[in-house]
WGS project CAEQ00000000 data, annotated contig 1053 (Trypanosoma congolense), 290 residues
Amino acid sequence: MTLSEVISGFVRITLSEVIPGYMKMTLSEVIPGFVKITLSEVISGFGKMTLFEVISGFVKITLSDVISGFVKINFSEAIPGFVRITLFEVISGFVKITLSDVISGFGKMTLFEVISGYVKITLSGVISGFVKINFSEAIPGFVRITLFEVISGFVKITLSDVISGFGKMTLFEVISGYVKITLSGVISGYVEIPLSDVISGFVKMTLSEDIPGFGKITLSEVISGYMKMTLSEVISGFVKMTLSEVIPGFGKITLSEVISGYMKMTLSEVISGDERGYVSFERGLGKRRE
């Protein structure tokens, strides 16, 4: 499957169709105050393991290497004409890239080799600085809107509604086309980068420099709990397994069986907030500010 097939249903969708009320607003107008925030920060509250960690052939790559030139850049200043760029224009250069081009090469590497560069990192540190943030204070223009109000329209949507169309599909069918893919092609140029560089460009920066309302909270404080925890606790049962060993065992398992414990769970049970905008990430990811 090509990326153009994956995103073919999105390239013509405007923000006004996705989020009623946003009309023809540009990204800078939709999320003012976020011009220096990375996507990793936006989705950091999703817990569990990210796709970036799953395909971590970037075994020693650091975030600072990836976004080191962006930490002090105002995107509206760095990219002239950015306010007129549509989502279609942003991804138009990717529609011909196939998934095989992106992940060409997974195959004979063990999971231990794939994630060996991340054994000392956990996601708990990523979101540790967010659980006490009042979003209405952090984002200018949203002073009356709490995160609870933002997601209030979704609290009745169950995961079973979202994935109902996948109930009869087996995992073997889903990944059968990828069993021979190796990670070697993706990460060949990154294996020498130390993890220490991940936060090297951030530890001395204060969030108040980028986001009004964060006071004197430093990024080093945000990620302080992140440095001593290891992913080995999460993936300890997988470190010696090869992809070929993992995949065949899924042949008779349906997705409905895999996610059966979540079929009746509502988003309100996963993500909760109060009238002040303080967020609580359930299942041990964080606690609501008292």
User: Anything to note?
Assistant: The two ends are 48 Å apart (CA to CA). Residues 156 and 266 are 6 Å apart (CA to CA). The chain has one domain: 3-281.
